[in-house]
Amino acid sequence: IVTSLLKITIMSASLEKTLGAPQTVQIKRTPQNQHDPPPITNIKAAKDCFVVNCYGRKIPFPALYEKTKTILVFLRHFLCYTCRDYVEDLAKIPEKYLKDADVRLIVIGQSSHDHIQGFCTQTGYTHEMYVDPTRSIYKSLQMKQGEIFHQAVRSPHVKSSTLNGVFKSVWSAMKSPAFDFQGDPAQQGGAFIIGPGELSYISER
């Protein structure tokens, strides 16, 4: 889902530069294809929150999307092997694509900032990454809490089997300076396309 959102956002941003401002068109759905509408994200609810960079410096959350369209990917925790596999794929996106489309790609975890550099090294991720150690943004944007079980659907982004993934997660925890889960293991993540300003395009939680 995250990679698809990213491709759509980069394409739409490029088209806006070429064709000008987008036009609004009403589209009717056929009953058999009708789904519940995506949840409306109240970005203003998190306007007073902060993220923390790898050096421990606090940055106001709105600064991430005030001036440009931004894809925000909130991870469950840094030891989640499915999150790691997704981030490894995000790491393959060339910086030039993002700059040409004037789009920021930002990954946010919910551990201490001490884990950012290690996670980036392990996944090869070189784009922006921050943490929300108090989970204030997660809570403000109403991301789910607690384990969620769905019918198994094999994602092309998840390369690890369950057994191998759990082993890698435990091994990473053992190698870290402080043996911890690097975030609340019950916290669910989400993906948002926001900006410029408080304009919210789409959310997936």
Q: What does this protein structure show overall?
A:
The protein is an alpha/beta fold and 205 residues long. Helices cover 30% and strands 16% of the residues. The strands form two sheets. It has a five-stranded mixed β-sheet with strand order 5-4-3-6-7. A two-stranded antiparallel sheet has the order 1-2. Helix 1 (2-19) packs across helix 3 (95-101).
Summarize the structure.
By secondary structure, this protein is an alpha/beta fold. It is built from 6 helices and 7 strands.
Blueprint (SSEs and pairs):
Layout: H1 2-19, E1 50-52, E2 58-60, E3 69-74, H2 81-90, H3 95-101, E4 103-109, H4 116-123, E5 128-131, H5 136-140, H6 162-175, E6 190-194, E7 200-204
Parallel strand pairs: 3-4, 4-5
Antiparallel strand pairs: 1-2, 3-6, 6-7
Helix pairs in contact: 1-3
Q: Key terms for this structure?
A:
205 residues, 30% helix, two-stranded antiparallel ribbon, 16% strand, globular, 5-stranded mixed β-sheet, 7 strands, single chain, alpha/beta, 6 helices
Count of alpha and pi helical runs: 6
Radius of gyration: 17 Å
| Major sheet: arrangement of strands | 5-4-3-6-7
Give the end-to-end Cα distance, rounded to a whole number of Å: 11 Å
For the sheet with most strands, the description reads: 5 strands, mixed
